[in-house]
Description:
SHC Adaptor Protein, alpha+beta, 177 residues, 38% strand
Amino acid sequence: xxxxxxxxxxxxxxxxxxxxxxxxxxxxxxxxxxxxxxxxxxxxxxxxxxxxxxxxxxxxxxxxxxxxxxxxxxxxxxxxxxxxxxxxxxxxxxxxxxxxxxxxxxxxxxxxxxxxxxxxxxxxxxxxxxxxxxxxxxxxxxxxxxxxxxxxxxxxxxxxxxxxxxxxxxxxxxxxx
Length: 177
């Protein structure tokens, strides 16, 4: 697994870098050789934060944890990713056809200032056609409240989202007839 470790406003200690890579090695049993792991380290007040993102075959697993030490936060993030994998393993095997999530994922984040005190965070990504069920699964894996995707039946851009009552909703463009 290719591993990238980034530290915000600090240097990455070599011992932590080696420890993280070693611990991520236990995930080799779950992912293909093309899997990529991104670890972002940052500090906020007295807490140390780890953002762990693993991408494999177009599926994204993500966890953000904060703790008193980077090592503890990383262990919590790894546990959260493993829970996601185990929770969704049968759904991934049963619902998805082989290669259903295979795509090039290139995420570009840039700040576009509109006014001096306001900025908009822009995320660009490639997406491929998928069913609403696949989009809901991907949304849950990412831990997001909504997910934008291309409907594999209609070819239209749709949005699935979590409802307050625990269900899911879908937003689709209106037919122009």
